[in-house]
Design brief:
The complex is a heterodimer. Chain A is mainly beta. Chain A contains two helices and 28 strands. In chain A, strands 17, 18, 19, 20 and 21 form a five-stranded antiparallel beta sheet that branches. In chain A, strands 1-2-3-4 form a four-stranded antiparallel beta sheet, with no helix packed on it. In chain A, strands 5-6-7-8 form a four-stranded antiparallel beta sheet, with no helix packed on it. In chain A, strand 5 and strand 6 form a beta hairpin. Chain A is globular. The radius of gyration of chain B is 17 Å and the shape is globular. The chains are: A mainly beta, B alpha/beta. At the A-B interface, helix 1 of A face helix 1, helix 3, helix 4 and helix 5 of B.
């Protein structure tokens, strides 16, 4: 074999090896660079502003895009990118961007950014003071300066300038482990602003030992911001807790006794109506009850848990919106063939309810539905891979 | 020359093959039936996990990996509820835990509920989750982290312990 042939053979070997290895190498590379890249980003954020416009925040190509509809969600404006720099934005399952619009028109956004190291991320915030035409450079709200777990953010505003962002935070767990100790669950931290998000206060811890993998919920009441999260009671009982961020006063609000050493990936929803009644939706597989439930807490009294949806259709991931005396509940089911959006409405602050209504379906990948109400209108925002974002009016008069 | 080149390419492919060994198979609605057929008349462990969404799963896989090192006959089937795009990430997680060669599957359906239903209609996606199948394929469901004690007792009962 002469030198030339040897060279050719070596080249052929190298080429063949490269070809054979490429698929694996490419996937490895993609994983190293951005482990979340393959995740779908169907989970959207939406809100109704005081003029009745529907605002939408969605993630595509590592960008957060904001658009607005002036006709109840039939047509949306051309989306505006929040940031000029791409980043991994969690927009899957119980992670979604949050959007709120203050009375002066300030558009506020929070989201969870995923970092390359598994289970690490940042809670991010940006805002627009020109009606959504441009946005401030995103800031990281978690101020511990560590590569750690910061995720499942929730956002609430009073409309007049106060803003709260709350999230699950692994800093106490990391600190305990670094000292060789153990730490059950995660912690809840939050940051507040008094000027529509121009400045934020230092992070504060609301509580320690919470479930690590369920969304949090936050709403603004007459007494300030109130949060709902899946807490850890004892070593592994994952029932819900409610707390006012200003007073720090915390209490257990479900007695399901769901003891599980696992990630339920299934948080709760919270809204407050004009009378100050709190409306809760949650999921449990506890000893006391199993399934999807609603209850209201008004004047210190709690209604009995009301079961929602068809357990045989995996009814789950409920959300609640309230304004005036209207309360709108949505959840998702899978009927064996397609995803189905279900909704029910109360117009008397949760005392009585319409029958559940099947609003839409999709035979492919889909987000969980989001309810919106301004007291008069009741809309359900639902994104699905095949159909895109749909804004579905809840019309009890229409045929089922 | 051409024959040599082809031989060289073949050699390179054979050399490359171990890198792909243990790559997860696509789990679809009929996969559990296939797994059960493979284990016809034999007990097996069906363990559900996620590379992405479940910190508890890593603790459990560490235990299973530890056991797999001493239990050469561990009849373990791993099913991840991620998507096939996560194959490389899964391998990267399983390899160092000593589970690189285990029978491994990954959810492949835009509607994971369909696959959850095929496995267990009462499962809402909580992870980890394990099904201990006996030789008749009657199963025990373990919700949450499987304890070493329970696993060892199960192996002993089914005469699988070393």
């Amino acid at each position: 074999m002469d030198g030339c042939r040897m060279g050719q053979l070596t080249f052929a070997l190298l080429l063949a090896a490269t070809l054979a290895y490429r698929p694996v190498a490419a996937m490895e590379h993609r994983h190293d660079a951005k482990p979340q890249a393959a995740k779908p980003t169907l989970a959207v954020g939406a809100t109704l502003d005081s003029s009745g416009r529907v605002w939408l925040a969605r993630v595509e190509n590592q960008q957060l895009w904001v658009s607005r509809s002036d006709d109840g969600g039939q047509r949306f404006s051309r989306p505006v990118a929040v940031s000029s720099a791409p980043e991994e934005i969690a927009a899957n399952a119980e992670n979604r961007p949050k959007i709120a619009v203050a009375q002066d028109g300030t558009v506020l956004l929070s989201w969870s950014q995923s970092l390359p190291k598994r289970f690490t991320g940042n809670v991010r915030f940006a805002r627009s003071t020109d009606g959504g035409r441009s946005f401030s450079a995103p800031i990281t709200l978690n101020d511990d300066g560590r590569i750690g777990s910061h995720s499942f953010d929730s956002l609430a505003i009073d409309g007049a300038g106060r803003v709260a962002v709350l999230w699950l935070d692994g800093r106490d767990r990391d600190a305990a482990r670094e000292k060789g100790g153990a730490f059950a669950g995660s912690s809840v931290y939050f940051a507040q602003s008094a000027d529509n998000g121009a400045h934020f206060s230092a992070n504060r811890r609301l509580t320690e030992h919470t479930c690590e993998c369920c969304r949090t919920a936050l709403t603004w009441t007459a007494e300030g911001p109130v949060a709902l999260w899946r807490n850890l009671y004892g070593s592994n009982t994952r029932d819900f807790a409610l707390a006012n961020l200003d007073s720090g006063k915390q209490r257990r609000v479900t007695d399901d006794e769901w003891r599980i050493d696992a990630c339920p990936h299934h948080g709760g929803g919270l809204a407050v109506d004009a009378r100050g009644a709190l409306h809760l939706v949650w999921f449990t597989q506890g000893k006391t009850r199993q399934g999807l439930f609603y209850k209201r807490i008004a004047d210190g009294r709690e209604s009995a848990p009301m079961a929602l949806g068809n357990p045989a259709a995996q009814a789950g991931h409920a959300a609640v919106a309230a304004a005036g005396s209207t309360v709108l509940l949505t959840w998702r089911e899978f009927d064996g063939r397609a995803y189905v959006v279900q909704a029910m409405r109360s117009t008397d602050g949760g005392a009585s309810w319409s029958a559940p209504r099947r609003l839409a379906e999709s035979a492919g990948a889909a987000d969980y539905p989001l309810p919106l109400t301004d007291g008069a209108r009741a809309l359900v925002v639902w994104n699905s891979a095949s159909e895109g974002v749909r804004v579905l009016p809840f019309e009890p008069g229409s045929p089922q | 020359m051409i024959r040599r080149l082809l031989l060289a390419m073949l050699a390179a492919l054979v050399l490359a093959a171990p890198a792909a060994a243990g790559a997860p198979a696509a789990f679809t609605t009929d996969s559990l039936a296939k797994i059960k057929a493979r284990y016809a008349g034999r007990p097996f462990i069906l363990n559900l996990w996620s590379v992405n969404e479940c910190s508890y799963c890593i603790a459990e896989l560490t235990l299973l990996g530890k056991l797999a090192k001493t239990q050469k006959r561990l009849p373990l089937v791993l099913v991840a509820t991620d998507t096939p795009d996560y194959a490389a990430a899964m391998q990267k997680t399983l390899g160092p835990l000593g589970l690189g060669g285990v029978d491994s599957w990954v959810f492949d359906d835009p509607i994971p509920e369909r696959l959850r239903h095929a496995i267990d209609p009462s499962w809402y996606g909580e992870l980890p989750r394990t099904y201990l199948y006996d030789a008749q394929h009657q199963r025990e469901t373990v919700v949450g982290v499987l304890s070493e004690q329970r696993l060892r007792a199960w192996l002993k009962k089914h005469k699988l312990a070393n």
